[in-house]
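To assess whether the prediction recovers the assembly geometry, we first specified each molecular entity separately, as shown.
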Amino acid sequence: MTATLPRPSAPKPSTTESSPRPRTVVPESLTRRQRLSRFDTKASPYAYVAPFFILFGLVGLFPLGYTLVVSLFDWDLLKGQGDFVGFDNFAAVLGDRFFWNSIFNTLSIFLLSAIPQVIGALVIAAVLDQNLRAKTFWRMSVLLPYVVTPVAVALIFSSMFNEDYGLFNNLLGSIGLDPVAWKHDVLASHIAVASMVNWRWTGYNALILLAAMQAIPRDLYESAALDGAGPVRRFLSITIPSIRPTVIFVVITATIGGLQIFSEPRLFDPVTAGGGERQFQTTVLYLWEMAFQRRDFGEASAIAWLLFLLIVGIGIVNFLVSRRIATGGAPRARRPRGAKAALAVATLPLSGATEPLAAPVAAQTPGSPSATSSTPAGSTPAASDPEEDVTA
Amino acid sequence: MTAPAQAPAFPVRRRALLARRGRAGGITGRPGFLTYGLLIALLLGSAYPLWWSFVVGSSSSAVRGQTLPLIPGGNFLANAATVLDAIPFWQALGNSLIVSSVITLSVVTFSTLAGYSFAKLRFRGRDGLMVGVVATMAVPTQLGIIPLFIMMKEIGWTGELGAVIVPTLVTAFGVFFMRQYLVDVIPDELIEAARMDGASMISTFWHVAVPAARPAMAILGLFTFMMAWTDFLWPLVVLNAGNPTLQTALQNLNSGYYVDYSVVLTGAVLATIPLLVLFVLAGKQLISGIMNGAIKG
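The predicted structure of the complete assembly is given in tokenized form:
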């Protein structure tokens, strides 16, 4: 914008041409307008982003920072601020086995939800990323669980996981298996809670990934298919590297959400805060119990900060790892974007050839079919799509 | 390659090959039964828990012995009446509508403004601030509930809807989302042209950015509405049972002495209906909006 701004002085030449009368007034008003316009250009971008930063600072960042202050005091829900105790609250929390239990539960439930969720979302997105009939219908069907609120999901799934007459134990019973103690067993309860999260979020994430997949040029797939890459190969070599940023985005949001699970474990057993023996008490649930049932704001704030550090730490690790994984696969697929002929390099290793070997082969492929074009049953089709021949 | 006459033969063969692949379920043609089988399985997985809760919610407790109950009973209205007696359902519904609408309006407005600024305007510190937005997206603001609660108590807002609304007036996700959308959708030339024609910054925003942003605003609005609608922890903390949102009212249904699962599930179904209606009415726009936004890029 700033670069183009000098040009809006276009009115200037026109005034110098037709400026018999108010010679002194016009340039002045112009400069004022110009200055105003320049101020507009300079200040507006800040004015547009300011509301976000101000409000976010006030109700987002400030409370988070103030949590640190609260955590340094004895602070009761009803009695308010007490004595300054330094890091005693942190020491108490770090020595609290219920805290570590809640961290273990949170991580366990997080892994049980994030990993299946991202993989499931990728698969669903790939299934939807086809020339389907009734596209919108299928997309809506995938998104349907998202409109069921976590509270409702928790209520529904708590009933389905009910140990006596729940849907899942009924199903297990009907195929002759023993009922599972969904609410008492540690792992089973984690799976149950994770399944609530997965049911609600997988389709949502799939649509985000689908949106990215749809932006991949179709001719990339067509060329790859011509070069003999099957659906799985195309998915791994073209789709995944192309939607890399979106995958990272999904992973990171899943992490941030997954580490703060509250509604599901809270409602899985409404009487206790996370099970009779805290077998599925997550850290946010423990934080809630500490603050609003035990009324210890100080220790609860310490929990909040420790969880905050954990989330940020895992987020950073997550980002680095997913970036490395993604870039590890990228160089191969990125090259073909430039020259279409080079695409063959990315897809041809199908035949097991290493890259230096594959390059000359790739250079040959465009020529070879036309050279043998007189014979329809040329070498390339036979080599590249045996599966199609079977199905067709 | 040797004779020019042979050159056309290649494209023809190429097209034929693609067509053949298409019929066989490749990338250009219609997918096969396997795909639709998977999709139907997904549909059942998405829909059955809801249907199941309706079936159980409309039945007496006898249905609970059945393995896969499919047919609803006739008790839904009776159970619904019990729900309406047990919790202030209509008040909760109204509260949820107010809270979600105000938050949606605010988030969409401020996100579009900031997103446009980040996507299309040049200013010193833009990239740094954008990194700030992305970083704050990772900030678990939920963890600030204790000072937020202290603040709300200080100003006497506990139990008031304002206490639920204020903390979510802006979201980093919204800014990021609008920025990602607008960066591709508005050609720079369009903005430059508007500015050359003497439009002020805000009128450029209004006449160039907002029309282009409308689909994304609708999507962001829908998602924000749902986010506000589904929020649970903070309303649970700051509101009391006498003035609940739908979610906290639902949890009251589940806690204490109402252990009748038929009633609880009826409540879950009733609370889901508003969003289901929204989904049926706006789901198509929502999805096509997401897709159009992605393809335009």
